[in-house]
Amino acid sequence: MFENLSDRLDKAMKTLKGQGRITDINVASTVKEIRRALVEADVNYKVAKEVTDRIKQEALGRKILIDVQPGQMLVKIVHEELTRLMGQDKSEVKLEGDPAVVLMSGLQGSGKTTFSGKLANYYKKQGRNVLLVACDIYRPAAIAQLQTLGQQIGVEVYAEPENKNAVSIATNAIAYAKANKKKLVIVDTAGRLAVDEEMMNEIAAVKAAIKPSETLFVVDSMTGQDAVNTAQAFNERINFDGVVLTKLDGDTRGGAALSIRAVVDKPIKFNSRGEKMDDIEQFFPDRMASRILNMGDVLTLVDKMQEVYDEKMAEELNRKMRKNQFDFNDFLQQIQQIKKMGGVKDVMSMIPGMSKMMKDVDVPDDAFKSVEAMIFSMTPTERANPEIIDGSRRKRIAQGSGVEIQDLNRLLKQFEEMKKMMKKVNKMSMGGSLMGGSKKKKRR
Q1: What's 233's domain CATH number?
Q2: 7 and 107: one domain?
Q3: Structural domain that includes position 25
Q4: 5 compared with 365, residue with greater pLDDT
Q5: How many CA atoms lie within 13 A of 169 on its CB side?
Q6: Claim to verify: residue 24 and residue 152 sit in the same structural domain
């Protein structure tokens, strides 16, 4: 995500690294490169100029502390300005009414239907009784796709396959939701072009009929500056409340994410990547700025950990680690929890400094597959007591998991080294689980 932009910004700010002080000359050179990086990332030129003008003004006007290098100060200023550009603070979705209604809008192919499923899953996990509504009466597979997603996440889907009136379907769905005590209705509409007057009239009519508490505009991040222009056209017609950025795992230059708030003056509320129903995050401007500047995103990582990790499980793991009883059963459990958090490379990129290290490294989502196979090939006794795994046992485990003995030997060695490290940590009285401790913290 934003790899090209991140690289360009990093190179631009390197010109100040090693400089003893900030001057008009070195700041002007650096700011010029930052502006070029933003424009090439498809950020609106006017927005890019305003941002870099503020960066320059801040850099020249701010006093440099003795223990802070000019390069470090500039990174801080750029982070502040990127955060400001994307909205400063997170913006919540308004869920008011009984039921609350969220209307989805956007271009064809923007990922509306998939995101509708993700959003339903997101709120279902929060304990809400959700109803998905299939109002795309034009795309042949749209209803079937939404129904498949609904089955996958355990959320009911309201559809009228024979009805070709989107307004009628939407109003009937709201009545059905009230009768069946649904607390949240998410209406998936047909993708449309902003220049298609008939289609724009239709979604305006749907909104007027169901009066949603929230209307979201779904943007394909890979469309760059075009996404901003489309957002403006949609906003003029339906006055949406917030933006959703999809496909952030694609080859996106990031321009839409950076300039849509400034141009349309509507907050970005969610971002998503991938096809899994858990691949959805609330949009935090400061966290996204950190990712763009290769500073990681520890807070989102902690949030993901808390979502998938059971508190009792964490306490039991802490107890085992303190007593140096961590075994392959526990290790397998940790792997399965990490997999629930999303793509391995995506999770690792949230660790500060890791994104740059992982740039050219291909980490497939099934990276743990062979490790799991080796552990599953062990007997319960071997998992609990890895030290008994001798030569003959190693040969059997390797054959059973389809790997070479060297691969198994490497795993056993790494596991022993990990246990030794845990022992050292325990001696230093710094106990804690691999997933960040057993106590859950409140979200920001």
Answers
A1: 3.40.50.300
A2: no
A3: 3-85
A4: 5
A5: 24
A6: no
406 vs 444: CA distance, rounded Å: 45
Report residue 292: phi and psi, to 5°. -60, -35
* Region for 34 from its dihedrals, namely left if φ exceeds 0, alpha if ψ lies in -120 to 50, beta otherwise: alpha
Same domain for 241 and 106: yes
Q: Which residues contact 23 (CB under 8 A, 6 or more apart)?
A: none
123/27 same-domain check: no
Note whether residue 438 is domain-resident.
no
The radius of gyration of the chain's CA atoms, rounded to the nearest angstrom, is 25
Average pLDDT, the chain: 80
Inter-axis angle of helices 142-153 and 112-124, nearest 10: 20
How confident is the model at residue 381, as a pLDDT? 93
Two tokens, residue 387:
């030290």
Would you tell me the crossing angle of helices 70-85 and 24-40 to the nearest 10 degrees? 40
- Which pLDDT score is estimated for 438? 41
Q: Is 317 domain-assigned?
A: yes
Q: What percent of the chain has pLDDT over 90?
A: 32
What single string gives the DSSP state of each residue in 16-38?
Answer: TTT-SS--HHHHHHHHHHHHHHH
The three-state secondary structure class of 191 is coil
As a three-state string, the secondary structure of 206-221 is: HHHHHCCCEEEEEEEH
Q: In whole angstroms, what is the distance from residue 110 CA to residue 220 CA?
A: 5
Burial of 26 from C-beta contacts in 10 A (0-12 / 13-18 / 19+): middle
Task: Please say which residue of 85, 112, 130 terminates a domain.
Answer: 85
DSSP readout, 91-114?
A: ------BTTEEEEEEE-TTSSHHH
Residue 93 domain-assigned?
A: no
- pLDDT at position 254: 61
Tell which wins on pLDDT, 51 or 324: 51
Number of other residues whose CB lies within 10 A of the CB of residue 388: 10
Write b or e for each residue in 414-428: b if 16 or more Cβ atoms lie within 10 A of its Cβ, otherwise e.
ebeeebeebeeebee
Q: What is the pLDDT of residue 210?
A: 94
